Amino acid sequence: MTILCWPEQERPRERLAALGPSALSDAELLAILLRTGVRGKSAVDLARDILVRLGGIRGLLNAPEHEWRAIAGLGAAKRAQVMAGIELSRRLLRESLTERDAFNRPEQVREFLTLSLAGLAHESFHALWLDNQNRLLANEELFRGTLTEAQVYPREVVKRALAHNAAAVIFAHNHPSGHVEPSAADLALTRRLTEALALIDVRVLDHFVIAGRDAVSLAETGRLTAAS
Q1: What is the tens place of the pLDDT at every residue in 100-123?
Q2: Exposed/middle/buried for residue 85 (C-beta within 10 Å: 0-12, 13-18, 19+)
Q3: Cα 141 from Cα 53, distance rounded (Å)
Q4: Would you state the pLDDT for residue 207?
Q5: DSSP label at residue 205
Q6: pLDDT at 103
Q7: Average pLDDT of the segment spanning 130-157
Q8: Angle at the Cα of 178 (from 110 to 197), degrees rounded to 5?
Q9: Helix-strand-coil percent breakdown of the chain, rounded to 5?
């Protein structure tokens, strides 16, 4: 049975209009983005299948391309619709960090970085450049590597800090291998970058390691000081 055959008060779009988005389940909200279902499944049924397969909303936001392509009935048009919704979420988080003290909003920083890095097949090293009130100036990919390593050069990082007139920075990189635990090399790199940036009075506030749907903060786990 298609959603059009449902009683009007049970249809997701009508429920959203009447009750607001907070009244809808995750599957109903996703169904609105999908717009239509597939043979034998309503949009809500398809949305439930997607959420189960990907592990809920967090999995939906972080799923790599190959996982999306493996979902039966999810063609290019539907993927584009969902990807557009995800990109809007990413931009909303970035805007929030631009307006407020990013360092005092660790969960939003984590969500933003996870959205940006989790699904990448290559290693990518990012910097969130912050002003003297810890508001986001720019999110910049500094280096891109292979599946196993990215070459990060402190001199180039210092140049970018000066270009943005940054007062502080939060670093982040992903582990495509899926192992979220920071390596000895990650700690050593953080130490080198902290020392280099200290020469121009730029503070390193944190370094996040992202792997799949997980993220580890060196500051939260007490290893930023150890790295420094």
Answers
A1: 666 666 777 887 888 778 767 788
A2: middle
A3: 30
A4: 95
A5: E
A6: 61
A7: 86
A8: 50
A9: 55, 15, 30
What is d(CA 184, CA 126) in angstroms, rounded to the nearest whole number?
Answer: 19
Sequence ranges of the domains in the chain = 3-90, 102-227
Tell me what pLDDT residue 160 has. 97
The pLDDT of residue 28 is: 87
The region of weakest confidence among 7-11, 35-39, 40-44, 71-75 is 7-11
Residues 6 or more apart in contact with residue 136 via CB below 8 angstroms? 94, 97, 98, 102, 128, 129, 130
Q: Which residues pair with 77 in a beta bridge?
A: none
100/62 Cα distance (integer angstroms):
24
Cα 15 → chain centroid:
29
Dist CA 210 CA 64 (whole Å)? 13
With residue 215 as reference, give the H or E element that holds it: strand 214-217
> Percent of the chain, pLDDT > 70?
86
Residues 151, 145: contact at Cβ < 8 Å?
yes
Give the residue carrying structure tokens 């990215």.
150
Q: What is the CATH T-level fold of the domain 102-227, as seen in this structure?
A: Cytidine Deaminase; domain 2 (3.40.140)
